[in-house]
Amino acid sequence: MRKILIIAAVALFAVPASRAQVLVDPSKVAPEYREAAEKRRAEQIRQRDCAQKADAEKVLPRDRTTFVNQCLDALAAKQ
To answer: Which of 31, 42, 48, 71 is the most buried (most CB within 10 A)?
Structure first.
């Protein structure tokens, strides 16, 4: 039983950390979908920037969604 627990613990630590969604690369998308891919990439960059601001300001996990939404709204108001 102890060996199983040790193996399970090692397996959990050996699994690489899951990453967030990868940024869309418009150059790897079919030409007819390139414009949509560029818009999606811009949105992903805005979301990532707001998430990084939340990390820098040490926003609590329970308040993170609200913070990110307010940040995105503020960015949209600037444009």
So the answer is: 71
Those residues whose C-beta lies under 8 Å from the C-beta of residue 78, and which sit 6 or more positions away, are none
Give 44-69 pLDDT, tens digit per residue. 999 999 999 999 999 999 999 999 99
What pTM value is reported for the model?
0.68
Q: At what angle do helices 61-78 and 34-56 cross, to 10 degrees?
A: 130
Residue spans of the domains in the chain: they are 20-78
For residues 64 and 35, what is the distance between their CA atoms, to the nearest angstrom?
Answer: 30
Amino acid in position 1: M
pLDDT score of 58 = 96
Residue 43 sits at the vertex; the CA angle it makes with 39 and 48, to the nearest 5 degrees, is 145
Does 17 have pLDDT greater than 90?
no
